[in-house]
Amino acid sequence: MKTVDFIVVGVGGQGTLLASDVIAQVGLGAGLEAKKSEVHGMAQRGGSVISHVRWGERVYSPLIGKGEADFLLAFEKLEALRYVDWLKPGGVALVNEQAIPPVAVSSGGAEYPSDERFLAAFKAVTDKVYLIPSLKVAQEVGSARVNNVVMLGALSALLDVDEAVWRAAIEERVPPKFVEMNLRAFERGRALVK
Amino acid sequence: MKKLLSGNEAIARGAWEYGVAVASAYPGTPSTEILEEFARYPNVYAEWATNEKVALDVAIGAAYAGRRAMSTMKHVGLNVAADAFFYASMTGIEGGLLVVSADDPAMHSSQNEQDNRNFGKFARVPVVEPVDSQEAKDLVGAALDISEQFDTPVMLRITTRIAHSSTPVELGERKEGPPPLPTYPRKFEKYVMLPVNARKRHPVIEERIRKLTVFAETFPFNRVEWGDRSLGIITCGVAYQYAKEVFPTASILKLGMTYPIPPQMVREFVGQVERAIVLEELDPFVENEIKLLGLWVEGKSIFSGIGEMDPRTVREQAIAAGLLPASARKTYIVPDVGSLPGRPPVLCPGCPHRGFYVITRKLKLPINGDIGCYTLGALPPLNSTDTCGCMGASIGVAHGADKAGSPERNIAVLGDSTFFHTGMPALLNVAYNNGKTITVVLDNRVTAMTGHQDNPGTGRTLQGQESKQIEFEPLLRALGMDHVQTVNAFDLREVERALREALKRDEASALVVRGECALLPEARKQYVPLRVDDERCNGCGLCFRVGCPAIVKRPDGKASIDALLCTGCEVCAQVCARKAILFRSQVQETADA
């Protein structure tokens, strides 16, 4: 089997690291080798965050090269655009519709890219772009914080791995008192793409 | 059962499984999680030391007493600990001593990307390097065995990609290490490095490296994976993974010990392949060691020694050097996204450092900064730090400017933990030498940048025990500061008044700017998001210049506040000339009404 490569991007504090933990755990749960790589530290201070996850019978590099990711899971639109060249031609992009203007924009010095620019850039790489209203769904479920798990639900619908494996990975990774809310978020996200 | 562990978690696990009894460290990315994880295991002692040199001395002390010991640090931490590293090499130890150096190629959170394998060779300390988390764990055990067998400290050298990548690991059980020696070793010739003894020890450590060179030939973590012999790749660390990915059919010599290298093994490998290439991140360390054997290999003439590698750059550089055909190129699409606004790390909403920099920017003071979250004050729109080199440099650099006759009054700015780390001797130096430097301790009550570690100011140890809480004011006075002021970090008027008072004084003084990190649990309970009064706001933009992520410019140019991000620190409200940003009390009043 060929490897399946995921790039997960977002803004520090959005739960990208937990999401990539779950994806890696699902890979193991599905009986594959899995590797995950990210960088801690400065990135946590509201910075741009990128995490690499790979599944396969045998996985060597923990890093994915540019233009080689099968899936780009983006928790924020500007970050999706920043890392669009990581996606392989024809790969799948799942993008949270949320926009979080960086300080350079909110303080008026720079402009947040328009939706037209966003769509044109993605169209050049792939026609498989899913825009996910995950923040809205997360708030309906009970908290903006499960935004990341709504996105995981959407991703899960596009992968041939038993739903139970996903649910087990989420249960393992989130604090016990939030498991139920996270599982609901997962179901809602899954239904968005199914 | 296999578990996904980061390299750091795997090292902590290995230290526990292989009987490490004492571990000491100072936090530093990418090494921090090793001690945090290790501290949670039963029957071990783990501590945050005040700096890396102290940490390594502590580990050496435990190893002298016969226990297995470990000290972990980021690469630049070993610069601080270098003195200890060198004497420990000279003396050797009783129980195994592991020094973990976490290097940071690409400088994800560091001031340089020095390759600490050089320190291994420099100090005649063997260096082992894992290719993934499983090896990271296994090499902890192997390194401790080598340490005891050869009477030497051993360096486990990792990089950010090993530290922060998670790969499957087989867990084992703890094997207790040796107990403390029944009596403390009194070996004058071995442990007292007077010149008379040091001269006798030098030949011993040179002989030790010679013996390790022989040992390396059969070290199981050095191995050959034969493939196509037209290309032979000698590699180590995470670069091994890129070699397997990019050159799946090549022959590979994987080195788990990179100092000293096994000469016979390398010679045979190089002799049996048509073209021998070294693939390693950063310095041509292994490459140069091989060249010293009189063998010809290529390395840095093909692969960059700057930054991190990844499969794509390795492939591209290999194609450029003719190692791979052009058809191996994987094309991809780089759409035109135009110029995107960056998203650098910023001071968090509610950060206690922000207000201080708003005032220093206003007063146009030259600032000699230091290492911590507050270094981010150097970035726009605060632009309020003029130098930052290494831990504890602020005070000495400011004192140097003073003694050089620089016409402006320099301010040394450093955090609470950095002050304990290396600020204290520098401040004593100011006092002793009649300096006039103004030293500002930004005391946010925690070691924040590396993820909220305890320090001598927090009154709690790494393993959760209550401890003596060191107060800054008496400490600063004891270090020779006759004038010590303490102000509330969130009260801009107070901060400005105190700074102006210090500037008036023609002598050294210290200022403690105190405000709890906004991310601490206690601080989180106090959040009250502020609001903008639309009618009063005229879009002047003063509040945007405090650089807070919670303040958003609306399409009409006026300000609004993101209630999900705002903590209610009131720095923006104090800056607003039109009183359009409501203070906490005003927000609460309107909420009650």
Please summarize the sheet with the most strands of chain B: 7 strands, mixed
CATH superfamily of chain A: Pyruvate-ferredoxin oxidoreductase, PFOR, domain III
Distinct helical segment count of chain A: 8
The name of the CATH topology of chain A is Pyruvate-ferredoxin Oxidoreductase, domain 3
- Report the radius of gyration of chain A as a whole number of Å: 16 Å
Strand line-up across the major sheet of chain A:
2-3-1-4-5-6
- Give the strand content of chain B: 15-25%
Tally of distinct domains of chain B: 4
In CATH, the topology of the largest domain in chain B is named Rossmann fold
How are the strands of the largest sheet of chain B arranged? 3-2-4-5-7-6-12
Give the mean pLDDT of chain B.
97
- The whole-number mean of residue pLDDT values of chain A reads 93
